[in-house]
Amino acid sequence: MDKTMRRFWIFNHYATTPATGPMLRHFCFAECLKEKNIETTVFAANELHQTGDTVDTHGKPYLRTEEEGVPFVFVRTSKYEGNGFSRVKNMLSFFFGLLRMAGGYAKTYGKPDVVMGSSAHPLTSIAGILVAGRFHVPAIVEVRDLWPEAIFSFGKVRMDSLLGRLLSAGEKWMYVHADAIVFTKEGDVDHIKEMGWDTEHGGSIDLEKCFYVNNGVKLTDYEKSIKEDILADRDLEEDSFKVVYTGTIRPVNNVGNLLDTAKLLKDQKDIRFLIFGGGSQLELMQERVKKEKIDNVVLKGFVEKKYIPYILSRSSVNILNYSQSQYNWSRGNSSNKLFEYMASGKPIISTVKMGYCILEKYQCGLSLEECTPEALAEEIRNIHDLSEETYAKMAVRAKEGAKDFDFSVLTERLYQVIEYVEKA
User: Fold this and answer.
1) Among candidates 164, 171, 156, 88, which has minimal Cα distance to 126?
2) Which CATH architecture has domain 6-216+406-423?
């Protein structure tokens, strides 16, 4: 390695390479940071999240691979299913696995100049702080999901309970000891203010060290995929007004609301709902379509991710369909799906009104004040009835807005964070 090249380690329990899964945020950063003379190594668990698949480490503590020039380390962890004790054990095994292997890995491949630990769960970020401290280098904490707030919002633990207070104390410790904090939603920094942890409210966290680097899309790959990964599907080729949803069919995504909406639009024969995705509620939705004779809905089931860009490009309007009650949307949205929708160059309807609203900022879609079938049906009609000129302008704004969330732009923001902690 070039002696002037800096080493950046990223810990992300659920990260993947293109060959092992869809969680590519940090792989994309690693690719782009090479142009900044930074060698980025991503450390992830060998048990691949939500797939049941495993990367074989051949009995060793970790397996180091290299894909498209990106060093990627799979740390051996325990197997798990669902969200019970086995998953907690898996989290702990990744945490302790990182602590055990970091020193030996550094002796072989060189110690890091900066370490970033990325949630979803905070143990990974804590491991990043501890490993960075061992090497006397800066630590960045990246927050992709606010824990324990996410646990509180689902009602699994009460914030004022003993466990809730302990979890919040751990979260505060993590933020205090990080040299920089990266949030993936623009409004997540408000959480620190609301908790009174920032210096302005008498706390010890300087908000100057908080940064915003959203999720996004790699536009060159996306546009290439539209042209090359074509899904042969008669419904996509039809000359109809296609309302498209892509994603998991599970309670948090509230797909039943789409079926209720479709029933209200049955009289408009040119409007069809195409729902792509698998999940725990797919069979239930299929039964509803059949039993209730909702003949303007087609449930397509699971499709490979490579086909999603083409599917979205063939839509008339893409639906961000969420439950308003199962998540705190006031701080914005960082879902990859949003930016894939924008990159398709089609208008978007969100079933929730979000804070820091990207659809509003770029004027490329509509949001519902209330998530009801009646409200969604009305907004679909509104998009359906737009003049060709107005529709085209909205579509162009979506595509242009996606450029701000291309990974080349996002990497520049992350690079600024790295420079900040190195100069501090």
Assistant:
1) 171
2) 3-Layer(aba) Sandwich (3.40)
Q: Is 71 helix (H, G, I), strand (E, B) or coil?
A: strand
Residue type, 287: E
Q: What is the pLDDT of residues 368-398, one digit of tens each?
A: 988 899 999 999 999 999 999 999 999 999 9
Pairing of strands 70-75, 62-67: antiparallel
- Is the Cα dihedral 64, 66, 71, 73 positive or negative? negative
Q: Which amino acid is at 333?
A: N
CB-based burial, 289-299: b 16+ in 10 Å, e otherwise: beeeebebbbb
Contacts of residue 41, defined as CB under 8 A and 6 or more positions apart, other chains included, come to 7, 8, 9, 10, 30, 71, 72, 73, 109, 112
Which tokens go with 3?
């002696």
Whats the size of the chain, residue-wise? 424
| CA atoms of 166 and 159, how far apart (whole Å) | 9
Task: Of 121-125, 136-140, 283-287, 320-324, give the lowest mean pLDDT range.
Answer: 320-324
The DSSP H or E segment spanning 300 is strand 297-301
Give me 289's structure tokens: 């379509």
Beta-carbon contacts of residue 400 (< 8 Å; ≥ 6 apart): 362
Residue 3 pLDDT greater than 60, yes or no: no
Evaluate whether 251 touches 281 at the Cβ level (below 8 Å).
Answer: yes
pLDDT digits (tens, 9 = 90+) for 88-123: 899 999 999 999 999 999 999 999 999 999 987 889
For 220, the token pair is: 């060159």
For the chain, the structural domain boundaries read: 6-216+406-423, 219-404
The residues with which 141 forms a beta bridge, in sequence order, are: 117, 181
Q: What is the pLDDT of residues 235-275, one digit of tens each?
A: 999 999 999 999 989 887 889 999 999 999 999 999 999 99
Select from 68, 74, 3 the least CA-distant residue to 30. 68
What is the Cα–Cα distance from 88 to 78, expressed in whole angstroms?
10
52 CB burial (10 A radius; 0-12, 13-18, 19+): exposed
Domain 6-216+406-423 matches domain 219-404 at the CATH topology level: yes
Q: The domain at 219-404 falls in which architecture? A: 3-Layer(aba) Sandwich (3.40)
Alpha helices in 110-161 (DSSP H): 122-135, 149-153
Cis peptide before 148 (omega within 30 of 0): yes
CB atoms within 10 A of CB 35: 10
75 vs 182: CA distance, rounded Å: 24
Residue 53 pairs in a beta bridge with none
